[in-house]
Every structure is written in structure tokens, then in C-alpha cells.
Amino acid sequence: MARTLCRIFKGCQSICSLPLMKTRLHPSASVLLRTVCVRRMLTLPLPFSPKARDFSLPNSSWGAEMRQLYEHYNSQCEEEMKGEEKQDWAWKRLPSYNRSLKYATGGVYLSKIIQSKARLFTRNIKEPGAAFEYVLFVSKDEQKCVCIFQAGHLLEGPPGHVHGGAIATMIDTVTGTHASVLSAPVMTANLNINYRRPIPLGSTVLIESSLNKTEGRKVLISCKVTSTDGSKLHTEATALFVAINVSHLLGG
Ligand SMILES: CCCCCCCCCCCCCCCC(=O)SCCNC(=O)CCNC(=O)[C@H](O)C(C)(C)COP(=O)(O)OP(=O)(O)OC[C@H]1O[C@@H](n2cnc3c(N)ncnc32)[C@H](O)[C@@H]1OP(=O)(O)O
């Protein structure tokens, strides 16, 4: 059972071609999985709902700083024509859903089996701007990831400032997503955080993640949270992620 689910899950991943996770498969195995998956998808309900909301797109709660930075990175996402030559994008925006297994990876059946009511922690509040408003961009060579984060009023810790756990959540989300893009599905093994300056509630900050090194299944990342002009260092962190097989989540 677990093995079948893994097969469906991996096949769907390669079809979805989203950058969140890469499968390392021999080309012939990849073709086989794709075929298996397409056949299964033809007989099963579609894994993508047209109603799936991409939470990383601008909404009315975004302040001027958040919008400006979004435009800055987003404008570097599209392919450009320079003279006769086509220039590749420098950054890629990563979509973000509240049911990652269902919408981002196409693992609709896995998402039902694990927890049909499960929702991504950072995307489970309906009111725009109330909690975690963020968008992630990954660089072309994938060595860097940048997140524009606007902290809503429900994230209060010390009066008027963002809760340390909410900051840790965002660091884990950004570095974890970055590690998944670089490697495969990963889990956080270690997260070290130094809080340097409090983050005012309602403010927009930049969370930048950089690859330190990869060692087999291990991905080591460093991260800093700064004001949008880079003048204030709010938080810095290092994180270790370990690539897992999906059966790890099924207790296999
Ligand atoms: C499928 C998902 C779809 C998602 C799609 C969309 C995603 C949407 C974006 C959301 C992004 C959010 C990102 C949040 C990510 C979490 O929050 S994950 C939740 C928190 N983390 C956990 O619960 C993990 C619990 N721990 C574990 O499950 C296991 O300990 C681990 C981490 C998987 C490692 O276990 P293992 O696979 O048996 O590996 P193990 O052999 O013990 O260790 C491998 C290597 O790592 C080293 N290591 C392991 N742990 C440590 C440690 N703590 N310190 C130092 N070294 C360590 C070992 O020494 C070993 O090193 P080498 O000997 O190879 O040099």
C-alpha cells in the first residue's frame, strides 16, 4: 500500500513539474512513472482543483513595500528578449497553496489518507493580511531563495512585535522550501536561530536563504531576516535538512 502511494506521488510530482521537489530517477523509470501516473489520473478525479488558491499572489492587504518588492522580483521572472537573444529568468516565483500535498504535488490520494482536513500552518487563516503574508522567489541557479514577508496582527509576541515562534516558522518555511527545491522532499533536522532585533508587527521584511553545502542526503542552509533596505538585521539562522523518502511520512 505504502509503496503504491509512493509511486503515485512520485509520478504526479514529475508531471506537475513544479520546482518544489525534484525526483532523481533514471529517464526510463521517469517515463514509466509518468505513464503509470497519467493512466491513473485518467481514471481518477483530477488532482488539481480549478479553485486552488495561490496564496503568494498580491491581495488587498499587501502594503506598498510588499507590492514594490514583489514587482521588483516578479519583473525578473519572465523571459525577456534582449535583441535577438532570449534571456532566461533570474528568479522564479514559487506558488503556495494551503494543501501542498493536494495542489502543489498532485498527491491527492496521499493528502486524503494522511489527513483530509490538514492545511498548511502558514496558509490556514482566511482573512488576508491577518497572519503570514509572504511570497517566495528562488534564484535561477537555486543557490538563493528570497521571501518577502508581511507580518499580520495575529502574530503578536512581545507587544507590537512579532512572536519568536512565528519568525521561526517563517525561517523554517523559507529554508525548508529552498532545501526541497535543491534536493527532494526534506524534513528539518536542526534549526538554530539568533534573534537580534525585534520585528514590528505589520512591517515587511526580507528573508534570504542561501545554500551552504549539500552532503549526501543533508542540505545545510543559512538564513537572515532583514529590513527591506537591508540596513537592520533582525534574525539569523542556520538549518539542516535531511532528504526523506515519502514512506518516512507513512511510518514505512
Ligand atoms: C513530502 C512533503 C511535501 C511538502 C510539499 C510542499 C512543501 C510546502 C512548503 C513548506 C515548507 C515547510 C518546511 C517545514 C519542514 C518541517 O517543519 S519538518 C517538521 C520538523 N521536523 C521533524 O519532525 C523531523 C523529525 N526527525 C526525523 O524525522 C528524522 O530524524 C530525520 C530528520 C528525517 C532524519 O532521520 P533519518 O532519515 O533516519 O536520517 P539519519 O540517518 O538519522 O541522519 C542522516 C544524517 O543526518 C544527520 N542528522 C540527523 N539529524 C540531525 C540533527 N538533529 N543534527 C545534526 N545532524 C543530524 C545524521 O548524523 C546523518 O549524518 P551522516 O551520518 O549521513 O553524515
TrEMBL record:
Its main location: membrane. It is found in: Cell projection, Ruffle membrane; Cytoplasm; Mitochondrion inner membrane; Mitochondrion intermembrane space. SUPFAM superfamilies: Thioesterase/thiol ester dehydrase-isomerase. Gene3D superfamilies: Hotdog Thioesterase. One of its GO terms (molecular function) is hydrolase activity. It is a peripheral membrane protein. Residues 160-231 form the Thioesterase domain. One of its GO terms (cellular component) is mitochondrial inner membrane. This is Acyl-coenzyme A thioesterase THEM4. It comes from Parambassis ranga. The lineage of its organism: Eukaryota, Metazoa, Chordata, Craniata, Vertebrata. The gene is LOC114448010.
